Amino acid sequence: MRSAVAAIPLIAVLAGCGSQTTDLPAYGVVPDFVLTDQTGKPFGSKDLAGKIWVADFVFTTCQGPCPRMSSQFRQLQQQVSADPSRVRFVSFTIDPVRDSPAVLADYGKKYGADPSRWVFLTGSQAELNKLSVGTFYAGRIDGSLTHSTRFALVDSEGRVRGFYDSSDPEKTKELVRDIGSLAGRSS
Length: 187
Hints:
Blueprint: H1 10-15, E1 34-37, E2 42-44, H2 45-48, E3 52-58, H3 66-79, E4 87-93, H4 101-110, E5 118-122, H5 125-134, E6 150-154, E7 160-165, H6 169-185
Parallel strand pairs: 3-4, 4-5
Antiparallel strand pairs: 1-2, 1-5, 3-6, 6-7
């Protein structure tokens, strides 16, 4: 089955958006954070400053929606290859007890993540929970391993600009269009 994400060539969208503006709502600003990436190094909001990014919340032992979500991220990553310095992908774990940097690195390899563009983050339950609940509305990180399956789009100024149901092909197409719109107006 062909994914809806693969159906829209984002390279063309990025190339044709030079002076567009966007009417996307702003749902708040991502607070400063520093977590640990899949290499064991600190990674945070400063590393994402000036970049458009898409966030999701997954865990590596998930037998439910996480593999599908990560496959969709891989497809998105491939589609924005025309300008990788402007668009990043960030997967936050909801299982920091089991998802160590090494485990996240293996998971990233399994899904073809380009580590220069797609990072996997872990950290304290409290810090991850602050982002999940207070910023991305993805649910509590409390050991229950329940979470939202939405993707969140963040603009180059750190504002959350949209939420997209990862299981809805039309919402995924909308995400692709909105990334292109933001990429066309970011500097």
